[in-house]
Amino acid sequence: MPRLGLAALFLFTAMLARPAAQHTFVLGKEDFLLDGKAFQMISGEMHPARIPPEYWRHRIRMAKAMGVNTIAAYVFWNFHETTEGTFDFTSPERNIAAFVKIAQEEGMWVLLRPGPYVCAEWDFGGLPAYLLRTPDVKVRCLDPRYMGAAERYIRALARVVAPLQVTAGGPIVMVQIENEYGSYGNDRKYLERLRKVWQETGIRVPFYTADGATPFMLEAGSLPGAAVGLDPGTTDEHFSLARRLNPGVPVFTSEIYPGWLTHWGETWQHPSAESIVKDIKALLDRSRSFNLYVVHGGTNFGFWAGANSGGKGYEPDVTSYDYDAPINEQGRATGKYRALRDLLANYRAKAAGAIPDPPPDIPAAAVAPIAMKPYASLWENLPRPVESVQPKPMEAYGQDFGLIAYETVLVGHKSGKLLVTDVHDYATVFVDGKYVGKLDRREGLNTVTLPKVENPMPLLTILVEGMGRINFAQTMIDRKGITERVTLNGMTLMNWKVYSLPLKDEFIQHLPEGKASGSADARPGVFFRGTFELAQTADTYLDLSGYQKGVVWVNGHNLGRYWEIGPQKRLYCPATWLKRGANQIIVLDLHQVKAAPVAGFAEMEPVG
């Protein structure tokens, strides 16, 4: 951070000392009114859960220097309630109040997008996995099991954000009700109940909804008296439709997409800069408010990446949420950023004065290849099993993420066609400890042939990786593991032992060195370990192209998943997770039994 001159320091201290000025923000018939005057919202979205907290201010300053005056932010319910009934809004990466206050300190207004459902290519669209322990739960409606949990979340979050409303001197000008509800359901009573709960908890700023610009989505998803957001809204026809269906409130483009998401096995999405510049110019020329989704994407650290279920079937999202956004995953300006900055700078020069220069880049550096070695076997670290007559999804065993192993002795049929109904999402199959094949929901692959063995009572083991839960539309109820049954030549297999392996960071930090440390374990499922020295810390991208499929931890922090099918081969590691001196990397690979080096690069592999 640059040093402040003495006069600037006194001014900065005085600004902190005096109470924040209160403003008014209301909905006019067509315009947003800030302190009684028409206000054009130029918003850039970013998600604090996808950004190391030490970089929040940098990313907000980057957005401000591009020309935005507002920051939109999703709040992910499941990120703040990882244990049912226990909320965390205070640890550094979950301190949503701190993020909002930084935005205010940087002169930004805030659009709060708290869900309870958000989509966002985030696991289960932000809903907590514990809901799925109830077999017949219905979400995003007035099912009392769901609503009881959702209202508890809203009341907990409201205690944090109510003091940050513009009416109390804070920067929050609007709160979104649900998200793109017209793409999912048509229960207006549900939406009204959500609004009422927010009002009961002290939220006094206006509300808005966000839906696709179609008649059925807007009819089902909008609310009388709430501003209408369009995802996206780019034409006069879109705005006319919204005003006709919900008159008397402002209409704005609540999501316009400078980039797009990428699934495993695809090529990187790369929408053109020319297209987004053209759309933004049209909105500016008509004095319409808009929100760039996203101005900066960040990273799906840990197991938080979601999935879609479109025409291709199950489509899990990659770990990076770079999104081909104007500000890339590491926080740097792209060509798209510069094009939008030029456009917005010209506009702001006419309307609101010059925009600031971007902050300095956060340093990034290469890391020399790190020697890795087998350290421990997954199979040496199984917990005590639970007995099940038939397999159940991992949520039924109280598990939210990670791996789950199912094991049974084969009685009757000993070989032939094994069918798993259904595998969610990726599995490796073993007979008497020997790997016989994989199952992959993404490819619709749920069968494998079991070979004949000499053992009269062979042991079948199915290790299942739960990947991202579907975060959009009608297939959101997406439990992990084996969801129904396993058959061999049509015979249902019974009497299983089930081992839960959530792979929490604490487990990795205390993982004991095992027999696999001297030589490669014969069975895939090996933890590899390496250490590396740093004289200085900097951001880096760790290259996993020498491995096949698994998860990476650095100094106990889960960087996310990698997969040889790409397109992502390098995982972003922020400098805040590194330290001077000795650092540790652990790689769990589901297939590989021989170590390969891991190197760091100053940037992600080229996007194209």
Whole-angstrom Rg: 25 Å
Overall shape: it is globular
Q: Cα distance, first to last residue? A: 34 Å
Q: How does CATH name the architecture of the largest domain?
A: Alpha-Beta Barrel
Describe the strand arrangement of the main beta sheet, using strand numbers. 4-5-6-7-8-9-10-11
Give the class from helix and strand content and strand pairing.
alpha+beta
The CATH homologous superfamily of the largest domain is named Glycosidases
Number of helical segments with 4 or more residues = 11
Query: What's the average pLDDT?
Result: 94
Number of domains: 3
- What is the count of β-strands? 32
The biggest sheet, with number of strands, parallel, antiparallel or mixed sense and barrel status, is:
8 strands, parallel, barrel
Note poorly predicted spans. 1-19
CATH C-level label of the largest domain: Alpha Beta
Assembly state: single chain
CATH domain fold name of the largest domain: TIM Barrel
Helical content (DSSP H or I, runs of 4+): 10-25%
Beta-strand fraction estimate:
25-35%
